[in-house]
Design a protein that fits this description.
CATH architecture of chain A: Orthogonal Bundle
Oligomer: heterotrimer
Helix content of chain A: over 70%
CATH topology of chain A: MetI-like fold
Strand content of chain C: under 5%
CATH architecture of chain C: Orthogonal Bundle
CATH superfamily of chain C: MetI-like
Shape of chain C: globular
Helix content of chain C: over 70%
Strand order of the largest sheet of chain C: 1-2
CATH class of chain C: Mainly Alpha
CATH class of chain A: Mainly Alpha
CATH superfamily of chain A: MetI-like
Chains: A mainly alpha, B alpha/beta, C mainly alpha
Order of helices and strands of chain C: HHEEHHHHHHHHHH
Strand order of the largest sheet of chain A: 1-2
Distance between the termini of chain A: 50 Å
Number of strands of chain C: 2
C-alpha cells in the first residue's frame, strides 16, 4: 500500500468515527430517556394533578400549560411573521430599510433565550402590566419564534413561480389581489411547515418563561390568560434541580423529559411529513 | 385619425443606468397585427411589456416619453395601472396557467374584477374558450387541472384567460416559441381570427411567422426602432441595409 | 380607489417589517435603559474588573462579572474544542463519502438532535454525563465546566454540521475534478482543496455554534454546578452569565440594584452574542460574494 492510500484510509476512518460519535450521542440521549421514562408513563400520569408535594401523581397541568402558552405564541408570531415575510418577498425594494429588516431578523435569531426572558419581564410583565401570566410568557416566546416563522414563510413565498404573479397582474389584478388569490394559497403548506417547527422549539424552551409566567406548582388548571401556569420544560427543570427530594422524584423527571421530547419530535415529524408531501405534489 | 389605437412618442426606457429603448415612435392602427422582430436583447420584449406597464414590476426602471392608447397617456399621473392592464391583455412566452382548473383559470380575471354572477361567468368562460379555439377540446373536462393540457393547449388557455377580461389590445411575447409546428399553426390561425376584434402586437424571433401573420412589421435593434412599415415592404424592399441583412439571415 | 387601497395594504405590510426592526431595537433599548440604573450604585470598574459577585453580602454587596465572563468563555471554548472537529468531520463524511442513501437518512436524524430542548440536555447532564465525568476524573461531583462543555458541544453540533456541509457541497465540482485529475486522492482533495475553499462557510458555522453556546441557559444552569467563584480549572464548577441571571432574577426585588445589575449582565450577554453573530454574518457574506 502506498503512503497516500494509507493516509486516505486513516482520514476516512477519522471521518467515520466523527459521524459515529455524533450518532452515538443521539442514540444515548434517546435511549436513556425512553428506557428510564417509559415505566412511569401511563394514562393517569398524563391526566392527573401532581400529588403529595409533587412526589406522586401526574403532569396534567404542565401539559395543559404548555398547550395554552403555545397557542398564545402562535397567535402572536404567526400573523406578524407572515406579514413581514410578505413585505420582504413581495413589496420590499433593495434599499437600506430592507437590509435593516433582514439584519434585525438575523440578530433576533441569535439573541440568547434568557435575554428574551429579561425583555419579557420589562415589556410584558411590567410596562404592559400583563403580570406573570400565560399571556406574557406566550408573547415572549412569540418574539423568540418570529425569526423562524419569517424565514420559513419567505422561503415558501419564494417557491411560488414568478409567472403566477405576472399572469395575474397582466389580467388587471391589483398587486394585493395577485398575492391574495394567486400567491398565498400556494405558499400556505410551506408556511405551515416552518410554523410548526418554530412552535415546537418554543414549546421546549424554558429560559424565556422562567420569569414571565411559569410556576413551580399550581394545584389547579389556569383559569384565564392572566394566570400563572405550569409548563413541561419548566416542570422538568424543577423536578431535576429544585425539588426537595430530588432522588425520589427522578422517575417523574425522566417521564416528563420523555413526554416533552415525544411532543417536540412529533411536531417535527408532522412538519417533515408535510414538507415531504409538498415536494411530491410539486413534482407530480 | 379615429382608427389610431396606440401612439408611441419618443419613448425611452432605462434599467438603472442602462438605456434599453431609445426614442421609439410608432403608430398602431385598430384591428391590425404588428409583428415585432429583431435579434435577442434588442428590446422587443421590453417594448411590449411597456405597453401594459408590466415593467412596473421590476425595481429601478425609468421611462421617458409617452404612450397613448385611445388618446390617453398610459404613463400619465392619474392613470391606474390596473385599468391599463385590463384594456391591454398579455400572453407570455412560456405558457403560464395557474395551478387551478381549466375553468378557474379563465374565470380568474372575472373574479378579481368582482364579478360574482355564476351564469355570466360560465357563459363568459365558454365564449372565451371558443374564441381561443380551445372549447371543443376541453368542454368535457373543465374541472381538470390546467397542467393536464398539452403545451399548445396551455398557451391557448392563456389566450382565453386574457380574452375573458375583454381587452382591446393583445400583447403576445413569442407565444409559439416553445411549441411544436402543429400547435404553432393553430396559434397563428387563431391570431388571424382574433384580428377582427382586437389589435395585436406580437414579438417573434421567427421571421417567417412575422411575414405570415402580421400586417405591419417593426424591426428593433439595440434598443432602437430601425424600421417600421407594411410587412410586405419590409420583407421585399427594406429601406435600410441593416434590415435587409437581418432579414436575409446575415446576422441575428 | 384601487391605488389608495393598494397603498394602504402596502403600508400595512411595511408596518409589520417595521415592528420586527423595532423589536430588536426595543430589546436593546429596554436592556440598556434598565441596566443604566445599576451604575448609579455600582462603579463600572467594579462591574467589569472585579471577580467578586456577591450581591447579598451583608453591608457591602459586590457586583463583579469577571468570573462569569471567564466561566462563559471556558464552557464555550471547551464546547468548540469538542464540536468543531466532530462537526467538520461529520460534515465532510456526509458531503464526500456517504452515499446518497446514507445522507438521506443521517441528515434528518441530525436535525432531530437540534430539536431536543435544552432543558432535556441539561437534565441528562445531571443524571447521565455528569456522573460519568465524575467517575473518569475521580471527583465528587461531575457538575463542572467539562460537563457543560460536552453538553454545549452536543447542542452546537447540528448547527456546525449542517452549515459546514452546505459550504462543502457548494464548492464547485470543477475544483474537485481538477484536483482528482492531477492524481490526488479523495482525501487529499478534501483536505487540500475542498476544506480550504469552503473555509469561510465552515468558519461562519462555527461562529454561529459559538453564539448558541454563549447564550445557552438551561444546560449550563443545570449541569455546571453554578458556584459563583472564579474557576481555576475545567474540573471546577462554573457559573456563566446566563445561569447567573436565571438563578437570581427569580429571587430579587423588582427595581433593586441587584435587579438592575442582572439586566446589566443581560446587556453584556446581548452585546457579546450580537458581535459573534455579526462576525459570522460578515464572514458568510464575503463568502457568498466569492461564489457569485
Amino acid at each position: 500500500m502506498k503512503y497516500r492510500d494509507i493516509s486516505q484510509a486513516i482520514g476516512f476512518l477519522f471521518l467515520k468515527a466523527c459521524l459515529a460519535i455524533v450518532l452515538f450521542f443521539l442514540v444515548l440521549i434517546i435511549w436513556d430517556i425512553s428506557s428510564k421514562g417509559i415505566g412511569t408513563i401511563n394514562w393517569a400520569f398524563l391526566t392527573q394533578m401532581p400529588k403529595n408535594g409533587m412526589t406522586e401523581g401526574g403532569i396534567f397541568p404542565a401539559i395543559v400549560g404548555t398547550f395554552f402558552v403555545s397557542i398564545i405564541t402562535g397567535v402572536f408570531s404567526i400573523p406578524l411573521g407572515i406579514c413581514c415575510a410578505i413585505y420582504l418577498n413581495e413589496y420590499s425594494k433593495n434599499n437600506w430599510f430592507t437590509r435593516l429588516i433582514r439584519m434585525s431578523i438575523r440578530n433576533l435569531a441569535g439573541v440568547p433565550s434568557i435575554v428574551y426572558g429579561l425583555f419579557g419581564v420589562v415589556l410584558f410583565v411590567q410596562m404592559l402590566k400583563m403580570g406573570t401570566s400565560i399571556l406574557s410568557a406566550g408573547c415572549t416566546l412569540g418574539i423568540m419564534t418570529l425569526p423562524v416563522i419569517i424565514t420559513a414563510s419567505e422561503e415558501a413565498l419564494k417557491n411560488v413561480p414568478r409567472s403566477y404573479r405576472e399572469g395575474s397582474l397582466a389580467l388587471g389584478a391589483t398587486k394585493w389581489q395577485a398575492i391574495r388569490t394567486n400567491v398565498l394559497p400556494y405558499s400556505i403548506p410551506g408556511m405551515l411547515t416552518g410554523t410548526i417547527l418554530g412552535l415546537a422549539r418554543a414549546a421546549g424552551e424554558t429560559a424565556p418563561i422562567l420569569f414571565t409566567g411559569a410556576a413551580f406548582f399550581i394545584p389547579f388548571l389556569p383559569k384565564s390568560l392572566f394566570s400563572q401556569f405550569m409548563a413541561l420544560p419548566y416542570h422538568l427543570y424543577i423536578m431535576s434541580t429544585q425539588h426537595h427530594s430530588i432522588i425520589k422524584v427522578r422517575p417523574i423527571a425522566y417521564a416528563t423529559a420523555l413526554v416533552l421530547i415525544v411532543l417536540v419530535f412529533s411536531m417535527n415529524l408532522i412538519a417533515v411529513l408535510l414538507r415531504y408531501k409538498l415536494r411530491k405534489v410539486k413534482k407530480g | 385619425m379615429d382608427r389610431l389605437k396606440i401612439c408611441v412618442e419618443d419613448f425611452n426606457f432605462y434599467y438603472g443606468n442602462v438605456q434599453a429603448l431609445k426614442n421609439i415612435s410608432m403608430n398602431v392602427y385598430k384591428n391590425s397585427v404588428v409583428g415585432i422582430i429583431g435579434p435577442s436583447g434588442c428590446g422587443k420584449s421590453t417594448f411590449l411589456r411597456s405597453l401594459n406597464r408590466m415593467n412596473d414590476v421590476i425595481n429601478n426602471v425609468r421611462v421617458e416619453g409617452n404612450v397613448f392608447i385611445d388618446g390617453k397617456n398610459i404613463f400619465g399621473s392619474n392613470v391606474d395601472v390596473v385599468d391599463v392592464r385590463k384594456k391591454v391583455g398579455m400572453v407570455f412566452q412560456k405558457s403560464n396557467p395557474f395551478p387551478k382548473t381549466i375553468f378557474e383559470n379563465v374565470a380568474y380575471g372575472l373574479r378579481i374584477n368582482g364579478i360574482k354572477d355564476k351564469k355570466y361567468i360560465a357563459s363568459k368562460v365558454e365564449r372565451s374558450l371558443m374564441d381561443a379555439a380551445l372549447w371543443d377540446e376541453v368542454k368535457d373536462r373543465l374541472n381538470e387541472s390546467a397542467f393536464a393540457l398539452s403545451g399548445g393547449q396551455q398557451q391557448r388557455l392563456c389566450i382565453a384567460r386574457a380574452l375573458a377580461v375583454e381587452p382591446d389590445i393583445l400583447l403576445m411575447d413569442e407565444p409559439a416559441s416553445a411549441l411544436d409546428p402543429t400547435s404553432t399553426a393553430k396559434i397563428e390561425e387563431l391570431i388571424q381570427e382574433l384580428k377582427s376584434n382586437y389589435t395585436i402586437l406580437i414579438v417573434t424571433h421567427n421571421m417567417q411567422q412575422a411575414a405570415r401573420i402580421s400586417d405591419m412589421t417593426a424591426f428593433f435593434m439595440l434598443g432602437e426602432l430601425i424600421e417600421f412599415d407594411q410587412t410586405g415592404t419590409i420583407f421585399t424592399r427594406p429601406k435600410k441595409k441593416i434590415t435587409e441583412d437581418y432579414i436575409t439571415g446575415r446576422f441575428g | 380607489m384601487n391605488k389608495i387601497k393598494d397603498k394602504l395594504i402596502f403600508f400595512f405590510f411595511l408596518l409589520s417589517g417595521l415592528i420586527v426592526v423595532m423589536l430588536l431595537a426595543g430589546i436593546f433599548y429596554l436592556l440598556g435603559s434598565t441596566s443604566i440604573h445599576a451604575f448609579k450604585e455600582i462603579s463600572l470598574k467594579q462591574f467589569f474588573f472585579s471577580d467578586n459577585w456577591n450581591p447579598n453580602a451583608y453591608g457591602e454587596p459586590s457586583y463583579g462579572i469577571v468570573s462569569m465572563i471567564v466561566s462563559t468563555f471556558m464552557v464555550t471554548i471547551g464546547s468548540l474544542v469538542i464540536a468543531v472537529p466532530l462537526g467538520i468531520g461529520t460534515a465532510a463524511y456526509l458531503s464526500d463519502i456517504a452515499s446518497e442513501k446514507v445522507r438521506e437518512i443521517v441528515k434528518p436524524v441530525i436535525e432531530i438532535l437540534a430539536a431536543i430542548p435544552s432543558v432535556v440536555i441539561g437534565f441528562l447532564g445531571i443524571v447521565l454525563i455528569g456522573p460519568i465525568v465524575a467517575k473518569i476524573f475521580h471527583i465528587q461531583s461531575g457538575l463542572n465546566a467539562v460537563n457543560g462543555s460536552i453538553l454545549l458541544a452536543v447542542m452546537a453540533l447540528p448547527t456546525i454540521i449542517s452549515l459546514s456541509e452546505d459550504a462543502l457541497t457548494a464548492v464547485p465540482n470543477t475544483y474537485t475534478e481538477a484536483s482528482l485529475a492531477l492524481g490526488a486522492t479523495k482525501w487529499q482533495t478534501l483536505v487540500k482543496v475542498k476544506i480550504p475553499a469552503a473555509l469561510s462557510g465552515i468558519l461562519a458555522s462555527c461562529m454561529l455554534g459559538m453564539g448558541r453556546a454563549v447564550g445557552e441557559t438551561m444546560t449550563v444552569l443545570m449541569a455546571t454546578g453554578c458556584a459563583p467563584a472564579m474557576p481555576h480549572s475545567f474540573l471546577d464548577s462554573v457559573r456563566t452569565l446566563t445561569s447567573s441571571i436565571a438563578i437570581e432574577l427569580g429571587e430579587v426585588a423588582y427595581f433593586s440594584t441587584h435587579y438592575y445589575a442582572l439586566f446589566a449582565v443581560g446587556l453584556v450577554l446581548f452585546i457579546i452574542t450580537f458581535i459573534i453573530n455579526l462576525a459570522s454574518d460578515i464572514i458568510l457574506h464575503n463568502y457568498q460574494k466569492v461564489y457569485n
